[in-house]
Specification:
487 residues, alpha/beta, Aminopeptidase, Alpha-Beta Plaits, 2 domains, 7-stranded mixed beta sheet, 13 helices, 11 strands, Peptidase_M20/M20A_hydrolases, Bact_exopeptidase_dim_dom, Amidohydrolase
């Protein structure tokens, strides 16, 4: 048996023996359900596990209190793993076959973000065990990247240089099926915050002031008319959220704020929409005599495929095997499908492996995801592991209900094994890394260099003035409270 085979056997056996390390972390983060940029205790749980297993941990990196970087080993190659752990506001769901939020405003996990960091940390600890036992060369870096749902964490980490000097990145995400990302990766994403300023005055004499909310509303009306003028080739979409419209109704608001997020297959599409948004804001402010300012708080680059690394990651997934879901969970899924009238889905879970596919034509820009920031700094592969009902277009509750159940445990355990097995191959196969590096250089040359997109003076939206509403509410709730909350 070769040294690589022995190391592969070690990580697989260790993860089987210590299965609860990843699943208990997943359950703990599910219980905490902390939304993006507020994931304090979730990040602490991951960091404590890494520190207890020999990793050095740096917290609060890139200006984000819940971001971290953990390292083990020295020298090359340096393989990076990725943690996400943010819940989505308003998406909590109990494990029952009908809509049942924990509370109407509680955060929850529609796509198993509670398990992403848990599986990566379990994989990192298993690889550390193999490195120590078999004397494997190199080092492991684990990135804690907050607020993936806002695509905030990784762009700031990239801008501040934390992704420089890596030899490869092995990421993962749940999907209805198990495969590896190939050509058709996530599109580009940008989030912009518009603040309008007016003159507050008593509401019974509105002509004596300027309503910032009216200016914001007018901007939004203009944006609705602009949507049909976005060229279809960009596959672009625009969404908005009014995050502040004033403090009380008896006076004209002198401040109003909205978040606009837009997606596109290309940065050209992002730039087109950004220019249109700014024209709308300028026109609305001019028409009503208001002022406005614009801040870009998230901006991602497009996906750069790396087939060499993807093939290695698929070998890791094949060695791990597809997840197998317990019969009671299949029965629960059948009840969900019966309620939704989806008799076309049988069996409810995908327990097979799907070989990576080449590019297909999309009708939309793809999901928002800042994982693409890694692939401009190093060869990047992303493993997909089956989770939830094997169908798209289901309501969020129908997928979210499995995030705290044995379905999640099976997905997390499979992902941890696939990541660990892939990482061991990369640590022990310099020829694979060399091939991936050559492809990486070729892809960057073909696409044209694209440095991180955020300005050097842009700060993450973590203070009350720039944060989304749920973060502001979280910050206010924390004022005067003890930071330690009983488990």
């Amino acid at each position: 048996m070769s040294s690589q085979d022995e190391a592969l056997k070690t990580v697989a056996g260790w993860l089987d023996e210590h299965r609860t390390l990843g699943t208990s972390l997943s359950d703990r983060i599910w219980e905490l359900a902390e939304p993006g940029l507020c994931e304090q205790r979730s990040a602490e749980a991951l960091c404590e596990t890494l520190a207890d297993n020999g990793f050095s941990v740096e917290t609060g990196v890139a200006g984000m209190p819940t971001a971290f970087v953990a390292r083990y080993g020295t020298g090359s190659p340096t393989i990076a793993l990725m943690c996400e752990y943010d819940a989505t506001p308003g998406e909590s769901q109990l494990p029952v076959p009908y809509p049942a939020p924990v509370s109407p405003i509680a955060a929850g996990f529609t796509d198993l973000h509670n398990g992403i960091g848990a599986a990566s940390v379990a994989a990192a600890v298993a690889v550390r065990q193999a490195m120590a036992e078999h004397g494997l060369p190199g080092s492991i870096t684990v990135f804690g990247t907050p607020a993936e749902k806002l695509c905030v964490g990784k762009p700031f980490l990239a801008r501040d240089g934390h992704f420089d000097g890596l030899d490869a990145v092995v990421a993962w995400h749940p999907r209805p099926y198990s495969t590896v990302e190939w050509d058709d990766g996530p599109g580009c994403y940008q989030a912009e915050v518009y603040d309008f300023g007016g003159t507050s005055t008593y509401a019974s004499k509105p002509w004596t002031g300027v309503s910032a909310l009216d200016a914001l509303t007018l901007m939004n009306v203009i944006v609705q008319f602009l949507r049909e003028h976005i060229p279809p080739a960009y596959r672009a979409s625009v969404n908005e959220l009014v995050s502040s419209g004033g403090q009380h109704p008896t006076a004209l608001p002198n401040h109003a704020q909205a978040w606009y997020v837009h997606r596109s297959l290309t940065r050209e599409g992002i730039d087109h929409v950004a220019a249109a948004l700014d024209r709308a804001a300028s026109s609305a402010a001019t028409a009503l005599g208001a002022t406005y300012s614009r801040r870009v708080v998230a901006a991602t680059r497009p996906w750069l495929p790396n087939h060499s690394l993807a093939r290695a990651a698929y070998r890791g997934l094949e060695r791990a095997g597809a997840p197998a879901f317990p019969a009671p969970m299949r029965d629960l899924a059948a009840q969900v499908l019966q309620r939704l009238g989806r008799t076309d889905i049988d069996p409810p879970f995908d327990e097979t492996l799907t070989p990576p596919q080449s590019r297909i034509t999309r009708e939309f820009a793809g999901g928002a995801d800042d994982v693409t920031e890694f692939c401009w700094h190093a060869p990047t592969a992303r493993i997909y592991v089956a989770y939830g009902i094997a169908a798209s277009g289901l309501p969020n509750w129908a997928q979210g209900l499995f995030s705290g159940t044995p379905v999640a445990h099976q997905t997390v355990h499979t992902a941890a094994k696939a990541i660990a097995l892939t990482t061991v191959e990369l640590l022990t196969s310099p020829e694979v890394l060399a091939e991936a590096a050559a492809e990486f250089q070729e892809r960057v040359a073909q696409a044209g260099p694209m440095p991180p997109l955020l300005d050097p003076d842009t700060r993450p939206p973590v203070d009350p003035g720039s944060a989304p509403p749920y973060v502001r509410e979280h910050l206010v709730a924390q004022m005067g409270r003890a930071t330690e909350v009983p488990a």
